[in-house]
Amino acid sequence: MTEHQLSLAINGRERQLADRLVVFDPTGATPATRSESVVVVGLGYVGLPTAYALRSLTAQVTGYDISEQRLRAITDGEVDLPDADRRGLAGALAAGSLRLTADPAVLSEADVVIVCVPTPVDDEHEPDLSALRSACEEVVSRARAGQVIILTSTTFVGTTRRLLVEPLRARGMEVGADVHVAFSPERIDPGNLDHVQRETPRVVGGVTPRCAQRAARVVRRMTDEVYLVSSPEAAELTKLYENIFRAVNLALANEIADACGELGLDPIEVTIAAGTKPYGFLGSFPGPGVGGHCIPCDPHYLLWQLSEPVPLIEQAMRSIDQRPQRVVRRVVEMLAEAGVDHSGARVLIAGVTYKAGVRDLRESPSLPIMTGLRRLGIDVHYHDPLVPSLTLPDGTRMTSEKTPRGRDWDVTVIHTAHPGARYDWARDCPRVLDTTFQFDAVPHRQVL
């Protein structure tokens, strides 16, 4: 077990508080057996890497997903995984160590069931629990004695008891004796090879101590460090707190960038300089908004649940929600400064995924940016080598410009710069808006 230092800004007392961590010790637990079969429910950005990580230490791993289209995409290798993992996935499927199915009957056959379904929010920022509720109902209806059931989907505090524990008890099953239930939030960072599962600690909160031990034994197959907390609720709020912190920090980074713009300073330089302090600071870089499966969504699960206002979190989420419209206004300003009527102007969005190096469009700021520009009568196109086509929220279908020429556009907006992609064509564009604050390939670029 490697020593893990807490990431806390508490005046250097991290090592003292580290003693309060309850470390799962696999030597004192019932030994794990390769013969245990595992079914992973949901094969999205969390479920697929989870199933893949388990296959080397488990005799049989089955990925279950209700989407036949998703299963075909996985079989064909059309997945958002690093190249090495994509090759390994193909090998695992060919060897049969990882199976795929849309048949829920596998749930009753498994020794371990891990639920990894998405938990988005709707247009009103209300939690959309449809996929999670449906998955848990299926798991509960097919649960059998001896199973370990682990929920990993980020959700509101109390979900594990409401959607798993109480329905299981209604079936006459005693949690902690007949079945073992726990919550262990995912910690997967798509597209970031610096944060691999094996080296990222995980937290487990069991309904009973025995539940925690049984679940931790499974989670330990994916990571070298597992920490136990007192309950599923503690683990559920742990995950929400992690992503709420990121949301508040990113909202602050954007505001600091705005302040830097007014003061004539470089926010990247300022952030890196502040980051030289070895305690009390954890910086983020500004951008066109916040996207992905977690940060724009997860804080709303806490806001939705609480009866009392939490103004800091509420303001941070409003700031995040409004950020793409700042990009829209900045484009219009650049056109006006150049004497170009924005109605009918041609604008190219370079990179539309929420994050560099991934194909994921969920909650990407590019979508409201393109929608906002189109509403003003601007002719909007995009270029992204990872996204051949997309559909805007209003139903408009768009295809990527494969070989854009800079001079064809009135403004190019650098939204996401993918590693390895070429953007030298942007030098020929008369006006380039860099929303990443780090695209220095074009000398005449302007920042957001």
TrEMBL record:
The keyword Cell inner membrane does not apply. The keyword Nucleus does not apply. Residues 348-441 form the UDP-glucose/GDP-mannose dehydrogenase C-terminal domain. Keywords: NAD, Oxidoreductase. It comes from the Bacteria. It holds the Pfam family UDPG_MGDP_dh. Belongs to the UDP-glucose/GDP-mannose dehydrogenase family. This is Nucleotide sugar dehydrogenase. It comes from Saccharopolyspora rosea.
